[in-house]
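Box S1 | Example of a co-folding query
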Amino acid sequence: MTTTTARQTPPVKGKPLKRKTEPICYIAPIILFVAVVAAWALFVSASGISRTILPSPFAIFREMSKNFVRDILPHLLFTLRVILTGYAVAVPLGILIAAVCSQYRIIIKATTPLIILLVVTPMITMVPLFMLWMGFDSKVRVIVVILQATPIICLNTLTGFTTTEGAKLELMRAMGATRLQTFVKLIFPNALPQVFTGLKLGCIFSTIAAMSADLAAGKEGLGYRIQQYSSLIMTEMAYGTILIVALIGIVLFQIVVMIERRVILWVR
Amino acid sequence: MSNAKIRLVGLNKLFHTRFQTIEAVRNVDMEFAAGDFVSIIGPSGCGKSTIIRMIDDLIKPTSGEIFIDGRRVSPHRRIPPEVIRKIGFIFQQPNMYPWMTVRENVMLPLRVFGLRDPEWARHADALIEMTGLREQRHAYPTELSGGSMQRAGVIRAMVHKPDILLMDEPFGALDEMTREQLNLELLDIWRATGKTIVFITHSVQEAVLLSNRVYVMGTNPGRVVDEIAVDLPRPRNLKLIVSDRFAGYCELLTGRIGQVELSQIK
Ligand SMILES: Nc1ncnc2c1ncn2[C@@H]1O[C@H](COP(=O)(O)OP(=O)(O)OP(=O)(O)O)[C@@H](O)[C@H]1O
Ligand SMILES: [Mg+2]
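Box S1 (continued) | Returned holo structure for adenosine-5'-triphosphate
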């Protein structure tokens, strides 16, 4: 009896529920990271594996801290700019395309295969083509990012826009709401969780796309750096740069997660 | 021509599904006078929701006519804004938007109808106050009890001061005590505002307690089988429920619904 009543205690009235994150949730990724690094270091020293295949994490850290500012930072900034510019275009573009498509069932049906085609096309295979058309400056890279990120953002957003509960739509209809009102007051906010899924995947796809563009050609960017280090057998630097790329992805992803927490207050 | 607030003439509604055609409503005539409180009662699937949804233009009848304030609702076009503004619709579920606070939900019709005058916001706040939701007005709907949420649903439907309230089993999902409480609150609102209320219910007691008149419906096809005037004194309260006359009306209604169901078995 007492346990059930305790469970049914209503939340504090007039205050939105806050999702409490236990401290352990913040430390857990750090613990895992330390464990992985330790296991890695242990493996390298125990197996005596060649440093050209897998260098130890400490060697990577040493080389990176020596060369970071001079050899990596400019390329990091360059690649970051490409990612952010492309992403900044892809987000509104993806959402806009989804908004337009969602208005008519026939357009959804017609465009969905095309969008999926774009999602699964690795843009690295397209870069040589783009270079034929446009030469190779940073604009091409931005376009590669846009082409890779927009479809995934669009696809997720479109799912959100087209899965509005019937009863919620009826409420709008019962008020004689216009198409625009229905979209602004209902369809868009209702889809926000899926929109954010798209935005999160978009970060990752943007980062991957920027790498692809770097690898394909050019003399700038982290991808170019990775390729160069590999061919020079500077394995520590190659791995270090890969980790930097991963870090970009993680940070961008977390920024979107933080914004999501601020926007979507009503879940749970 | 009568001066009914709402008049339904020979309404039919067929639903075509993949496997069959369902005759949800056959040849329904109903009339709701201005300021009247009328219930529609009947077994599940007899087309109660279908009727009320046709009145609110959520679905179009297959044939027949609907008049609101003497104006015929076109079978082809959406009901015009000035007519839809006269109606408030209360759903079976609270149907709140979870991303809006209680107050934002209640104010939603004002936004959609473009009623921006601060006077309207004050009216919304007064309704929130009246239904005891003041403390919770900045909470999200999921934090409310079922009863509070349905209260919010009721005042959202009347925030733009419609003449007509269409209520589709609004308290059906609530426990007995909350339901009685909300019934009494509804009677207060009705007495204070004089709205025309069309109230759908499964509950005979609810129908007798609230209404002036009850339409009894039967299934297969959904149709009106009886119309009973409830001649009990007003204002009504819970004391009425234990009176003999109340019990008499309940028995009468139960009998009518029972007969309907029996005739279907045959
Ligand atoms: N959109 C629809 N498509 C197909 N059939 C429908 C649809 N809406 C209702 N029906 C059918 O029409 C009939 C009447 O449904 P309706 O919802 O009006 O019943 P009801 O009297 O409100 O029932 P309840 O008391 O269970 O809410 C039912 O047989 C139902 O299956
Ligand atoms: Mg129903």
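Chain A has one domain: 63-263. Residues B 48-49, 168-169 surround magnesium ion (ligand 2) (CB under 6 Å).
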